[in-house]
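Appendix B, example 12.
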Amino acid sequence: MEFVRKLPIPMEVKEMYPLTAPMAASKEKTDIEIKKVFTGKSDRFILIIGPCSADREDAVIDYIMRLREVQEKVADKILIIPRIYTNKPRTTGDGYKGMLHQPDPHEKPDMFAGVVAIRKLHMRALAETGFGCADEMLYPANYRYLSDLLSYVAIGARSVENQDHRLTASGLDIPVGMKNPTGGDVSVMMNAITAAQHKHTFIFRGWEVNTEGNPLAHAIMRGYVNKHGQSIPNYHYEDLIGLAEVYAKSGLANPAAIVDTNHANSGKKYLEQIRIAKEILHSRRHSEDIRSLVKGLMIESYIEDGCQKIGDGEVYGKSITDPCLGWEKTERLIYDIAEQL
């Protein structure tokens, strides 16, 4: 292991790139509206939507500006939280790990440049669109670099069993979605939610810290992979009824679930997200328990359909990780969802 350089701590980076008062006010307004949904005070439907990975600032901001226009038209029914995922888990450890590691996918990793790039990207989104956005907490110790910017955090399927993720989530004051693990065991996810909702004392970034517990920690159903490597969905009516029953016995605060329409739920067949989203809406209409539990969807979407490899001409606004719905289909889907709510 080679120690390359000592990086600035989060407080120092925040001083280099501070939030303005209007940006802080926009985030506070967003946070209040999101929390209302998870506490049952609002029946608006959440869409956590955006690229699989935030690979370049210009295209991501372009995409989010488009979301802002759509948000104004569906504001009475839908609350959009753009995905700006700047850290990417890699199953084998190989491949593009996101903007944090490589602000330029063509260059070698540069962690300080990455920290600056992801902070500036989230700041632009907040300043130019008013959106407080979502990111995945791949590295718990790095959360503080963005803690004054994020309005939603997801814990991935590979991280949900990790104690550091669970304990850190217990100290956040925004909703944290805990995905079911890749093997599909819902009890693992529910244990993670329980841990995140409880108080803890632990070591964080060299400090002894106390947390009060996060009552907004909740489930994300993303499908799973069986022992034969086959994708198995868990968004169907029976799966959601089963989750509602588990929640009813759990004693957890604010029962809630977000359903991921891609990943193992779609078998990464990105066009299936449209059908899956509409099936979930049908299940919500059929069952009051599901309607109360399922607060929204997670959708992978960008400007262009599909995905591409790094270096293949690189079409603007086309994913360089998992395939995504293009903008035209995305816009139509959002309006369709609004009509069916």
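The mean pLDDT is 95. The first strand starts at residue 45 and ends at 50.
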